[in-house]
């Protein structure tokens, strides 16, 4: 069983920055692709970024490419999302997810989810 706990959300003005953190329990972190998703009110959950367990390759949604950076620290069982140049449309609950021994291509392939952290960007 893996537990994921997000932190670092908050209220920020447009153009500002935040860094989200996700702390993972369990022994499978180093073998897990880690991802970030977000869900805005009235919208479906959408993919933001992931970082693979094997090569550390990263992949981003077009809407955040060039502004967000995902990274991981296997020694700390943690994954981070650095968000720069935030926009009001980035407002959402951000979720951390883990997929063991796979690189998911659909939302349903992720094995574990955190409870989320709210990010609000004011204009």
Provide keyphrases for this structure:
123 residues, mainly beta, seven-stranded mixed β-sheet, four-stranded antiparallel β-sheet, 0% helix, 50% strand, globular
Furnish the topology, listing elements before pairings.
Blueprint: E1 4-7, E2 10-13, E3 18-24, E4 32-39, E5 46-51, E6 58-60, E7 68-73, E8 78-83, E9 92-100, E10 112-113, E11 117-122
Parallel strand pairs: 2-11
Antiparallel strand pairs: 1-3, 3-8, 4-5, 4-9, 5-6, 7-8, 9-10, 9-11
Shape: globular
Number of E-state strands:
11
User: What's the order of the H and E elements?
Assistant: EEEEEEEEEEE
Q: Any idea what the radius of gyration is?
A: 13 Å
Uncertain segments:
none
> Which class of secondary structure composition applies to the elements?
mainly beta
Q: Number of DSSP helices?
A: 0
Binned, the helix content reads: under 10%
User: Describe the biggest sheet?
Assistant: 7 strands, mixed
Q: Distance N terminus to C terminus?
A: 40 Å
| β-sheet strand percentage | over 45%
Q: What would you say this structure looks like, in words?
A:
It is a single chain. With 123 residues, the protein is mainly beta. Helices cover 0% and strands 50% of the residues. It contains no helices and eleven strands. Strands 2, 4, 5, 6, 9, 10 and 11 form a seven-stranded mixed β-sheet that branches. Strand 7 (68-73) and strand 8 (78-83) form a beta hairpin. The mean pLDDT is 96.
């Amino acid at each position: 069983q893996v537990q994921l706990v997000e932190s670092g959300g908050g209220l920020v003005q447009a153009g500002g920055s935040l860094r989200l953190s996700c702390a993972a329990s369990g022994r499978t972190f180093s073998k897990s692709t880690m991802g970030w998703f977000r869900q805005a009110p009235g919208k479906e959950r959408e993919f933001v970024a992931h970082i693979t367990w094997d090569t550390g390759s990263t992949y981003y949604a077009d809407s955040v490419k060039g502004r967000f950076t995902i990274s991981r620290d296997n020694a700390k069982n943690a994954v981070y999302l650095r968000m720069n140049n935030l926009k009001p449309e980035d407002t959402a609950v951000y979720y951390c997810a883990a997929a063991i021994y796979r690189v998911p291509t659909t939302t349903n392939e992720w094995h574990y989810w955190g409870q989320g952290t709210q990010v609000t960007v004011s204009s």
